[in-house]
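Hi F.,

I've been meaning to write this up properly since the lab meeting, where we talked about keeping a consistent format for the predictions we share between groups. The idea is simple: the sequence comes first, exactly as it goes in, then the structure tokens exactly as they come out, then a line or two of notes. No screenshots and no reformatting. I'm using this chain as the first example so we have something concrete to point to.
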Amino acid sequence: MAKFAAGFNELPAVIPGRGDYRILMSISRVVRAYTVVGEAGADGAVELVSLVLDTDLGWAEALEFSLPRAVSPFRDPTFLPP
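Output, unedited:
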């Protein structure tokens, strides 16, 4: 959020001609990707309008390492908790 608020004026507008709505799309170590949409208020404050997190675990397989068993049940439809 700090990156979004600090660079708000340099971000692309969500709606052409409406510079008060800006968007940031990026990747992260914690989630695969994220999108933040915000609106500049009359007082200069940036208000969060939307936050979308891509938490798809498919990226882990592309990195060629195995996930710990604690995460694996999310991909195993036959898993039953103890």
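Notes:
The chain has a mean pLDDT of 75.
Residues 2-56 form one domain.

If this format works for you, I'll send the rest the same way.

G.
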